[in-house]
Amino acid sequence: MGASDRSKLTGELKEWGASFETKQPQDVLAAALERYGGKIVVACSFGAEDVVLVDMVHRINPTVPLFYLDTDFLFPETYATRDRVIERYGLQAAQVIQVKSLLTPEVQAESYGEALWARDPDQCCRLRKVEPLARVLRGYDAWITGIRRDQAPSRAHAGLIEWDQKFDLIKVNPLARWTWADVWTYIKVYEVPYNPLHDQHYPSIGCTYCTTQVAPGDDPRAGRWKSFAKTECGLHKS
Question: How do residues 126-166 score in pLDDT, each as one tens digit?
Fold first, then answer.
């Protein structure tokens, strides 16, 4: 795709996304699922926003696949939530795509040194999240994410539907306008399975080594990479 075509598409997507600003996330999802058919996938970390999306998508089209980035360092509770989600929605094995780094933890330690996350978390994220994400997204025209505008300043201007310049495909953010309270209202109303770590002051859940509890009233992402000036793993910024 040339620069002019990409610019035109970016503008069209921005306009299309803006048309949903007064509508519900389900409306965004229904339109995106219809347009992109079998070439769209849900990104799921099994956090609160993502399990909401799985529930919404399942009610519209239960055949849509999801993928999760298995860094090899996820919490046991995250894997357990994955299993509960699979059981709750009757997901087939082919619908749940596990995506891993090309490096095992042992090979990463040999190549980059022990505990890379403690010295250079950006590099660790590139190896275990960003590269695997780029790899899985090559097979799709669009992906659905659970990002919300009030999660972080870097997400404040996220469109409901937009062009993802980093990964070269359409990015659908149905929950962009929602608040944390909106997410939990949905979870409670529809009894959606969720990660029990959320009940233990973990609003944002990543890898075991880089996620800590957050004190009540603190920024929800304050528990991620706590000792570093880092708020994103690199999946949602250009």
Answer: 999 999 999 999 999 999 999 999 988 888 999 999 999 99
Nearest to 203 by CA among 218, 190, 193: 218
Model confidence, pTM: 0.91
- The side-by-side arrangement of strands in the sheet containing 40-43 is 96-99, 66-69, 40-43, 142-144, 169-172, 161-164
| Catalytic annotation, residues | 233
In sequence order, which ranges of 138-194 are alpha helices (DSSP H)? 180-190
Give the CATH architecture of domain 3-210: 3-Layer(aba) Sandwich (3.40)
d(CA 174, CA 28): 6
Report how far apart, in Å, the C-alpha atoms of 126 and of each of 71, 94, 96, 228, 234 are.
11, 26, 22, 16, 7
pLDDT of residue 141: 97
**Whole-number Å distance between alpha carbons of 130 and 51:** 21
All structural domains of the chain with their residue ranges? 3-210
- Please give the radius of gyration of the chain, using alpha carbons only, rounded to the nearest integer: 17
Average pLDDT of the chain?
A: 91
